[in-house]
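re: the backbone from monday

yeah here it is again, tokenized this time
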């Protein structure tokens, strides 16, 4: 090879050799420290937190779903139907399962100077009964109004009825004394031989099959009413409901679904979950955490499904502030539904002198007025 050609070849190879020496060999796979992307995960959590807060504060979905018509009471009720349908879907009502063909049973358990007491059983779902105490007042003659009297958490019809009624006062016998038929159903809060959190466990399992304990326990009331109004002594056009604490919850949601309940008194419940949610979202008990609970179905807005029927909310001045203060804040929004229909007398928000208890005086005066 001539010297000139060799020199030219050397000049060609020198840059390539230099590059080979300066560039490291490429790895088989790209790698990066996992911790390098930690800020992205932190940002994702922040974004989702802000999203939840934004949607929780946005009233537009509710306003789109419920567009009240205040031209008449009938028009208002019709306008509320989409909201009622959405609420039923949210909790899984009516619960799935064929209703049994078995008849209701009434077993006499006692009597006294004011009434006759029966253990009532109403088959409502496969293997499920609505069970409670049914009382016929001695003063009853012909068709008689019916009161559903709903106990609270950890309670029972027996606790609310016997030995003075505890903090339920006269929530059951008060109706009998006034000549009303009474059905006091039993709901699940504890059961011998089962875990202490049996209510939560049953609710979690129900959600996996398309319903909830709220829906089933509403059905324990509404399906029982279906059977009770078949009795010749029940006036189907005059049904009321009263409840304390958890029973106050059911005295919100049951009339919201069943328009046959013409008057209702919810004691020591209204606004409790809204107050808990404002302080710490996940402090709301699991059975109150149905879909859209705080965006479409808070306590004040659910009153739209009761209006124009009469509804009283009670709270004790010496009860825990959580059972009173948030209710005071949101009650005006509930009252507005009635005010705009010129029916403001049908809604009452009563702060009475007392604790976590049923206020007989205010409740029975209201019930007697509208039933």
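seq for it, each position gets an aa:
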């Amino acid at each position: 090879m001539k010297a000139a050609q060799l020199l030219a070849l050397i000049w060609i190879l020198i840059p390539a050799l230099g590059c080979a020496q300066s560039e490291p060999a490429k790895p088989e796979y790209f790698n990066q420290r996992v911790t390098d992307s930690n800020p992205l995960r932190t940002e994702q959590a922040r974004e989702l937190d802000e999203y939840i807060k934004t949607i929780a504060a946005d009233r537009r979905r509710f306003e789109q779903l419920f567009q009240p018509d205040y031209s008449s009471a009938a028009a208002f009720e019709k306008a509320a139907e989409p909201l009622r349908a959405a609420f039923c879907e949210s909790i899984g009502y009516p619960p799935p399962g064929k209703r049994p063909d078995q008849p209701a049973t009434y077993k006499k358990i006692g009597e006294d100077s004011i009434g006759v007491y029966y253990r009532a059983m109403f088959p409502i779902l496969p293997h499920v009964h609505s069970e409670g105490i049914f009382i016929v007042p001695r003063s009853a003659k012909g068709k008689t109004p019916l009161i559903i009297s709903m106990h609270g958490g950890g309670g029972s019809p027996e606790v609310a009825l016997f030995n003075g009624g505890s903090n339920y006062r006269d929530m059951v016998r008060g109706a009998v004394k006034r000549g009303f038929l009474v059905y006091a159903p039993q709901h699940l809060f504890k059961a011998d031989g089962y875990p202490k959190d049996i209510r939560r466990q049953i609710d979690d399992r129900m959600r996996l099959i398309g319903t909830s304990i709220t829906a089933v326990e509403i059905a324990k009331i509404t399906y029982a009413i279906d059977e009770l109004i078949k009795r010749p002594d029940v006036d189907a056009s005059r049904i009321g409901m009263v409840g304390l604490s958890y029973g106050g919850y059911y005295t919100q949601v049951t009339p919201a679904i069943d328009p046959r309940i013409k008057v209702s008194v919810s004691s020591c419940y209204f606004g409790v979950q809204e107050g808990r949610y404002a302080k710490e979202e996940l402090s709301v008990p699991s059975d109150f955490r149905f879909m859209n609970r705080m965006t479409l179905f808070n306590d004040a807005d659910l009153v739209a499904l009761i209006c124009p029927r009469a509804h009283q909310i009670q709270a004790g001045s010496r009860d825990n502030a959580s059972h009173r203060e948030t209710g005071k804040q949101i009650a005006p929004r509930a009252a507005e539904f009635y005010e705009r229909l010129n029916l403001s007398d049908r809604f009452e928000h009563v702060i009475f002198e007392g604790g976590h208890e049923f206020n007989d005086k205010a409740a029975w005066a209201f019930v007697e007025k509208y039933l």
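The chain has one domain: 76-370. The chain is about 40% helix and 20% strand.
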